[in-house]
Amino acid sequence: MRPKWREACRGGGALTALSALVLLADDGRAFAQSESTSRELPPIQIGGGEAAERKKPVASRRAGKPSPADHRIPVYPAAAQASDMRSVASGAKGQLGMASEISVSGEEINARPFARPGEALEAVPGLIVTQHSGEGKANQYFLRGYNLDHGTDLAITVDGVPVNMRTHAHGQGYADLNWLIPEAIAAVDVRKGPYFADEGDFASVGSVHIDLIDRTRGIAQVTAGSFGYRRLLGMDSAKVGDGSLLVAGEIGTYNGPWDNPDNVRKLNGLVRYSQGTATDGVSVTGMAYANKWNSTDQVPQRAIASGFLDRFGAEDPSDGGNTNRFALSGRIAQSDDLGSWKANAYVVKSQLDLFNNFTYYLSDPVLGDQFHQHDDRLMAGANISRTLNGALAGLPMQTTFGLESRYDAIDLALTNTFQRGFLASVRSDKVGEGSVGVYAENTVRWTDWLRTTVGWRGDYYAADVTSRFNANNSGRTDAALGSPKFRMVLGPFNQTEFFFGAGYGMHSNDARGATTTEDPCDPATRLTPSPLLVRTKGAEVGVRSRIVPGLDTSLSLFILDQDSEILFSGDAGDTSATRASRRYGFEWTNHYRPRSWIDIDADLAMTHARFRGYDSEQADVYASLAGYPEAQIGNAPGNYIPNSPAMVASAGVTLGERTGWFGTLRWRYLASSPLTEDNAFRSSATSIFNGRLGYRIDNGWRLQLDVLNLLNTRANQISYAYGSLLKTDTLYNLCASGTAPTSVCQNGVMDYVLHPVEPLTFRLTIAGTF
């Protein structure tokens, strides 16, 4: 089925050989996972905060042996908190549990040139972060053969606060990171797969946990670049009492190469107080962010080919949005003779108003298809966990219990608009959604070379939906799922470890979909409510080796199944069915540091992704479009999953010492992907090089030039294929006159729809410390 961009209220619109990797059980039993390297299970003592005497190196990227601090590349030497520090009150950092699990330092992330804050996450092997419209909207994420849209199945937290928004106006799991200040990142911890009991909603494919620095030397930084890019950053910390007070502020503007300038206006602030260490400390963090922008959404290829639109043109120049976010959070961690415990709490107030037009004149041939999505929410939550160190028949054992809770109070609205002016309401809802998660994990080290972890997680969700326009779409819904987990680690054998993991996971669906029984635009049309929680299950085997001095290499083979589900479409206000799917593949990750002044990494991920079963409904749609090939192509039934990349690759080299010249060259590759289920449309591969050259003085001053899209490659940030109508289409006139069948007019002209990569871009940064 083609992507369902907009079908409500205006009228319509309709590696191989790796499969033998693991056979998943269907009876609710879990498999296995792993981790290991020393005879005893900690508690691991990790430094943080002001207690310099307790500092211990955090695992470097891809878990290699940490390099001495003096040999790391301090691209941002202003940060007094070195990359070997854990954030205060973040808790103990245990040994890695899977070959695909990594930790990336803030230094390593900031050594990379990137166009927007969300691209900092591309330090995660196999993850692609892109954008298909304005710079204030959440990014699009791709990982392990998933088009994760704006965050579904990729759980992201910052300082322990969830970023993903459930029951969101634009899309389930919406994860906006435009408020993130990359220079404030201390470390990023990455996990993949449903094998960890303390990972819940949206974490089936992966989870990314971002920790913030606690202190820094004063830094003032100004960046100016192509297409009106301007950024001012100030950051400093001071000793207050027994702790540190960190303050950071950011102002940014950007127009982009678009015929209709983005006119981004961004304000961002961070205040953080921390005291103690990672395992015995407390921190309180406040954040504030506001952004306004215009957006050039994806445009149909036929409009560019005919000369109707420039490659950087916009079909509807009134698209755009505004957003704000205010957050207050606190963390505490303590250790004792029995083990350790940690807790955190947060409250987030956010608002988004988004104007998009993806189908142009398909639903409304006169005023166009622009719509407005409004999301205004208050999110609050608290988590606590307790870790006990003990023994089982004389064998080292560690047990962790945890409780997680969250509540979202949400006001949602979907309206039809013309040039951002109100036309008609589609639906308006008030939603209260709460959840409780409990989990337990038990790890036993059976021998010097064998460790197992058995876990279980239970999640309960409940939601009240009040539909302001249709009481039949109101109601209360709840659901619960239990998810067993298992991990196992064998080794080390000659500096090599073997990992196995398996488990069940879940993600939540939009609560409105679970109570919607009637089409918001046609109450006579009955709809099937969606399940509130959807099951996933997966397994993974991997190996990690450090046999070659300076080289940390790992290989993971994975499989992930997702149940059939009914999805709520935030763009349309109704539900649609999807089929069960299976993805399997491998990830090969390498990090090599042969000298103190050179750092090399190279990653390759390949995935085979397919729907399961036969789509008879799509076959009926295909038959109804007979005689109109411009509408029928791409609508045949098939098992390809749209926008599921079969291959993702990246590589980079970073050169430099603490002072003097430094440089970075990075390459990112996203292979061709199917855009329709029948594979009739495929995206072009995207290969982009980014570079950086700079000079550092020992007094902390730095001059740096970033060059994005170094080879000025003509490529697309993202491509889709679906039906739309332009006033220049022959079909537009046939539909306006009533000549074409209704099914054809509801589908429109099938075509590539794309958002281009920005051309060659320069950004010059001058930074000083004080």
Automatic annotation (TrEMBL):
Entry protein name: Outer membrane receptor protein involved in Fe transport
Domain of life of the source: Bacteria
Organism: Bradyrhizobium ottawaense
Domain TonB-dependent receptor-like beta-barrel intervals: 268-710
Family: Belongs to the TonB-dependent receptor family.
Region (Disordered): 32-71
Membrane topology: Multi-pass membrane protein
Pfam families named among the record's database cross-references: Plug (PF07715), TonB_dep_Rec_b-barrel (PF00593)
Location(s), subcellular: Cell outer membrane
